[in-house]
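notes to self, project folder thing:

trying the whole complex as one job this time. last attempt i did each chain seperately and stitching them together was a nightmare. two parts in total, labels are on each line so i dont mix them up again. if this works i'll redo the older ones the same way
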Amino acid sequence: MKVVLISVGDELLAGRVVDTHAALASSELHALGAQVVAHVTVGDPEGALAEVLRRECARADVVLVTGGLGPTEDDRTRSECAQAAGVPLDFHESWWAKIVERYRGSPVKLSERNQRQAFFPRGAQGIENPWGTAPAFSLPIGAATVYCLPGVPHEFRGLLTEVVLPELRGRLPDRSDERVWAFHGVPESTLDAWIVETLEAAGLPPDHHICVKEGEIEVRLRGDFDLLPAAREAFGARCLGEGDLRLPARVIAEARRSGGTVAVAESCTGGIISSRLTDVPGSSAVLRCAWVPYANEAKIAELGVDAREIAEHGAVSAPVAEALARGALERSGARWAVSTTGIAGPTGGSLEKPIGLIWFGVAGPEGVCAGVRRLPGDRNRVRSYGSTQALACLLAAIRGEDPFPWAEGP
Amino acid sequence: MKVVLISVGDELLAGRVVDTHAALASSELHALGAQVVAHVTVGDPEGALAEVLRRECARADVVLVTGGLGPTEDDRTRSECAQAAGVPLDFHESWWAKIVERYRGSPVKLSERNQRQAFFPRGAQGIENPWGTAPAFSLPIGAATVYCLPGVPHEFRGLLTEVVLPELRGRLPDRSDERVWAFHGVPESTLDAWIVETLEAAGLPPDHHICVKEGEIEVRLRGDFDLLPAAREAFGARCLGEGDLRLPARVIAEARRSGGTVAVAESCTGGIISSRLTDVPGSSAVLRCAWVPYANEAKIAELGVDAREIAEHGAVSAPVAEALARGALERSGARWAVSTTGIAGPTGGSLEKPIGLIWFGVAGPEGVCAGVRRLPGDRNRVRSYGSTQALACLLAAIRGEDPFPWAEGP
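result (full assembly):
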């Protein structure tokens, strides 16, 4: 199944908005086994979308259009689809009634313009949108099925996940026997070579999928084979476990399962670990408190770091990372704590402590320890990778595993 | 000047990576006055890029290609450009010598494959890349100028900013007389109507640009006219000021200018305010400490919130928002502090305190106060908008303005 994603909107072409829809949909479609062959972004001028639709519907099985379903004159997705399909737009009383119903009790006033949203190209199938007022629809153009979804992020996500993906899943080979395992801190090429070898040794064909998401790697494999025991042996805590949970959700789930709570003291990651953990619904049952003790005085006053340790080793050091984790644990009463202190750049690096160097501290029932990594890239990347590494350390600690497994192994 | 952006890479189509290059380039090009007419993402298969190049070079003046300049066989941008232009690839001894020179002393070993990077389509102009090993190049295809840049983020950013934009600026009408003002908390349509009216009253044509970025609105206008006095009168602190600084950078700059420091106590925003502030280089001189007191016990123990206030009013209330801000101020010794406490969802809402309700607290030399907003959308959006609102409150406090101006005004 060949899929083309089309995003519509002048705001995308003006760079006001980063298109995260395309990446989300691509990643989900890739996991289903569909092949995304192009992303295209077009503006709002008349005829722009219709031209792209005619071209892409000639080669794709499915085209996913995002945006342009609002009530204003700039919202042309309905008429552009009709133009590309060579059909008229029809007004649907029943859809209009649903729109009127949705506006009842809403603070936003329904206007005449909203009637536009009850028009569909002839032959289209309306799709209810419980997340917003603009109905979505699907429509055959040539041999392709075109889905048109609103661009509002939560509406798009809802309709993609609840409507489009389940429909497409039915048209793709069954992958319900697929199992997923997650890894962190293993180079993709190393992991790939190891899986090929492991499958070969088990007499299985190498038909696995590897997918990298923000520093985590997912391996997908169909059938009964359990990769976990061999992966744990080869990679230790760098194999995060089975299932497609992302790291923050995995930390929250594992902590809930153990009945324990966590705390964070993050200096160079500046709140990213905490914001990723609290992004997970239900995290309030797990996270007690997080600190961003950016100034040395805050490290000392709030987390009990010894001023002499800072004077002797510097704020970016093993003793300070350990003291931060210990402080967070003791102050919050949590069972586990993780800390970061490092040089995110763009300035502040030295020969001895270059930009990208981060010390991680972990505290828990088994004591306190620290580990160091030098992460590549600019400030943004160092902070983001650093937060992922810290979450992996925290997960290992919750499981009673070595939080710093990167010194050994393949 | 019509511009098309093409991103190359299977990793984009698989959704492993979000394409932020397109938004960055679009926003910069838009600010220069160029018109970006499409973004296209293609994969690595042979012929894919050449086909798109032929099509887009027929209508664009400038095409910017990102990615596919590495040394592997998948890196086909050089040969695809040659194919689209109908020219052969030539090996350049002088560029090879530069590549060899760059690898000297690098931990990465130069291999024979790297010779690929010294081939350019005939007629291309090599562009030195001081940020990495892959040279970039430009090439005429039809009437269009094609620029090929590496996909590695900091290499792309460097070459875009230092080479491509200055070249294009020379081909575009001068916009150095453009002025920018930033707003927050004003509906785009309200702002637009107000600007049209204001310009009309001043006898000026309405040739302004409005651009929305993560809840902030930028207004661009050419010439001498100063929008600030009228904007301040109409919108108070909701007019953030002149210049194209984003809110976190504006907070850091304004605090530095005043010689004061800031602190944050964020519950429902869970670390986002802090991570956005610390994303700004130089923020370590301004942010003393941030807390994410997620558990009520942490609010009480770490920030001195009175347990009886929580029992009486709930954690999401004006007294608790004020106590959090006051606590952050006193504990950190900062001059200003901001706090959030709210219901981010997806559960926890009630009739009285629905999902999206956030109390904001501000503390500073002029005392402590609180304000409330109900923000639309899902957990993600509530948290993100909440962090933007809190930053706007903090900025107003630093300036000695009303941090909660949304009760009045147009």
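what i see at first glance: The domain at 247-407 of chain B is CATH 3.90.950.20 (Maf protein).
need to look closer tmrw
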